[in-house]
Specification:
There is one protein chain. This protein is of the alpha+beta class. The chain folds into 2 domains: 76 residues; 190 residues, Porin. The chain has 4 helices and 8 strands, in the order αβαββαββαβββ. Strands 1-2-3-4-5-6-7-8 form an 8-stranded antiparallel beta barrel. A hairpin with a 5-residue loop joins strand 6 and strand 7.
C-alpha cells in the first residue's frame, strides 16, 4: 500500500515543483520586461521636456539677431563720408554776363562729412571756363583769349530724403574764387584809358592800363559766397545720380565774378 501511494505523491510533488519553477521564471521575465520599459518610458518623457526647454532658447536667438541687425541698418542709413563728381555748363550774370558768354564747360569734385542723415559739411573744388564774347575781344583789341575761374567752397549741406530712392539737398556757404585771363595778339597800347572791360578784366587799378604790358594776363583773387540745390536718384548699384544748380559770387575791390554751374554727376 505504501508503495502504491508513494509514486503518485512523488509525481504530484514533481509536478508542483515544476509549476512553481515555471511561475517564478514567468514572474522574473515579466519583471525584466517591466524594468526595461520603465527607463524607456522615462527617457521618452524626458526627450520632449529637453526639446521644450531648448526650443524657446533656440527660437529667441535668431529673433534677437534679426532685431540687432535691423537696428544696425536703421542706424547707418546715411554715409558718414560721401564723395561727388560732376560736369556740365555754366551761365553768367551781373557784370560777368556783359563780357562772358554762357554755356561753357564746368566741372566739380567734392567730399562731404555727414553728422547724420540730414546735416553735413561739404567741400568742393570747381572749374568754370569763362570764354569772352566777341564784343569783349573787340574792346580788348585781341584775336582770342583764355579766361577761367577756379573756386573752392566749404558749405553746410541739408539733405532732405524724399523717398527711399529720391533725395533733395540745399547747400550754402563761403567761397574763394581765383580768376585768370590771357589775351592773344592784343594791340592795346600800354597806358590807354581804362574801360569797363579792362576794369572787370582786372587790369585797371587806376585811370589807365599799366605801362608794363602785364594787363593782358591778369590774375584776381576774390572772396564771396555760394548757394544752390540739387536732386539725387539712387540707382541699383547704390550710387546716386544728381543734378545740381549753384550760384557763385566773388568780389575784390569792386571787381566781381558771377557764374552759375549746372552739373550732372555721381555721389557715392
Amino acid at each position: 500500500m505504501i508503495g502504491k501511494f508513494a509514486a503518485p505523491s512523488a509525481l504530484k510533488l514533481a509536478a508542483f515543483n515544476l509549476l512553481m519553477t515555471f511561475i517564478l521564471v514567468a514572474q522574473s521575465a515579466a519583471q525584466s520586461e517591466t524594468g526595461q520599459a520603465s527607463p524607456q518610458t522615462g527617457n521618452t518623457a524626458s526627450v520632449p521636456q529637453t526639446s521644450a526647454s531648448q526650443q524657446p532658447s533656440g527660437g529667441q536667438q535668431p529673433a534677437e539677431e534679426e532685431e540687432s541687425t535691423s537696428r544696425r541698418k536703421r542706424g547707418h542709413e546715411y554715409k558718414k563720408w560721401q564723395f561727388n563728381v560732376g560736369a556740365g555748363v555754366n551761365t553768367t550774370s551781373g557784370t560777368t554776363n556783359d563780357f562772358v558768354r554762357g554755356g561753357a564747360f564746368t566741372a566739380m569734385a567734392g567730399a562731404a562729412r555727414n553728422a547724420n542723415r540730414y546735416l553735413g559739411l561739404r567741400a568742393d573744388f570747381i572749374y568754370a571756363n569763362l570764354p569772352l564774347r566777341a564784343t569783349s575781344l573787340e574792346l580788348a583789341q585781341a584775336t582770342g583769349a583764355t579766361n577761367y575761374a577756379l573756386a573752392a567752397t566749404l558749405d553746410p549741406i541739408i539733405n532732405i530724403p524724399a523717398s527711399k530712392d529720391w533725395g533733395l539737398y540745399i547747400i550754402f556757404g563761403p567761397s574763394f574764387i581765383h580768376r585768370h585771363g590771357s589775351l592773344d595778339s592784343d594791340t592795346t597800347p600800354p597806358g590807354s584809358p581804362c574801360t569797363a572791360f579792362w576794369r572787370w578784366y582786372g587790369s585797371c587799378s587806376s585811370a589807365s592800363v599799366p605801362l608794363n604790358g602785364n594787363f593782358v594776363s591778369p590774375t584776381q583773387n576774390e572772396w564771396g559766397y555760394n548757394f544752390g540745390a540739387g536732386i539725387s536718384r539712387k540707382v541699383p548699384s547704390g550710387v546716386e545720380v544728381y543734378v545740381e544748380y549753384r550760384f557763385m559770387h566773388g568780389s575784390n575791390s569792386g571787381v566781381t565774378t558771377d557764374f552759375r554751374p549746372i552739373t550732372v554727376g555721381f555721389r557715392w
